[in-house]
Amino acid sequence: MPELGAIPQKLENTNQTHSALATFNRRLTLLENRLNNIGDQVNLIENSLNEKHKSANSGISDLDGQLKNYTNKISELDSEIRRLTSIVGNFATKQDIKVLERYINFWDPIKNK
Known about the structure:
The chain has 113 residues and is an all-alpha fold. The chain has one domain (8-112). Helices cover 90% and strands 0% of the residues. The chain is rod-shaped and about 145 Å long. The termini are far apart. The mean pLDDT is 88.
């Protein structure tokens, strides 16, 4: 036959167990909420990084297009400079003009008189 004094001790242990379980349940709920908040923050950061990555890639694509455009313009300018240089190379030099001037002065009968 169980002792009468043992029953209140079991009830006390049961109350302590319930109290401990309730405390454990509250703490577990807090941890779950914190974990959900951290997950939400990670998702927000990930979405932000994805948007910034897309923006950076778009900017890089724009810069690449501009660079190709400038490269083409520089190439056109280079070919134009080469063409002008070849044309200028065909011009008479200062010395050639002086020689022609001497011949014209020599042949000009009005000035010789």
